[in-house]
Design a protein that fits this description.
about 20% strand, elongated
């Protein structure tokens, strides 16, 4: 039979694992709501950087640039939040 201390340790471990799983789920769900995931901008190379572009051109669209595709997509996410003014 398990003593109370061992039962408490087991319960604490289960609660900790559940919290970690919940945080992982939140992080994953956030990734699916990023503008670059939702709107899927075109990804191309522009000189020495990657460009993530949503729209027909840089003047009318939203773009992000970076040294890697990930950096360009994250810059796109930031640009998506900026106002015109």
């Amino acid at each position: 039979m398990l003593n109370n201390e061992y039962q408490q340790l087991a319960a604490d471990a289960i609660c900790h694992a559940a919290r970690m799983a919940g945080e992982t789920w939140q992080q994953a769900s956030y990734e699916f709501t990023r503008p670059s995931v939702l709107f899927r901008p075109a990804l191309s190379i522009d000189r020495d950087e990657w460009c993530a572009l949503y729209g027909n051109n840089l003047q009318d669209g939203v773009a992000g640039f970076g040294k890697s595709p990930d950096a360009a997509m994250r810059a796109f996410d930031t640009a998506w939040q900026k106002s015109i003014s």
